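User: Could you check the structure of this?
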Amino acid sequence: MPIRNWFKSIVSNDPRATLRHKGPPLVAYFWDGGCPVAHPVKNISSTGFYLETTERWLLGTMVMMTLQRTGADPSHPDCTVIVMSKVVRHGEDGVGFSFLAVDNPSSTLQSGPVSQPADRKTLDKFLEMIHSDHDYPRFD
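Assistant: Sure, the predicted structure tokens are below.
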């Protein structure tokens, strides 16, 4: 059985190689021309996330997403983060995204609301807060 799993992992087309967390206390917003709607994030890892949505962007499409912690005080500044993401797979109930690296956007920010995607350090800090909000299942 272990050899079968090893072989399966070598020939798999599934790019999800990092540990994922199922059912995080998290929703995502994206702009589609209408009113913002919260979409559940079904799982998340350090490299990307799976979004429950009826949208089906083309593979490779870049989408700016606002991720919001649902288990935190919405007035807290660390409750949301904007990330640049790329469509990497489609599923029956949603779309898989990978995070795209952004280099130091804070150096170009003006005073006022943040509307630029987070850099890797900010994203990692946000992911740590999600994990501490709640104990939720991990799976590979």
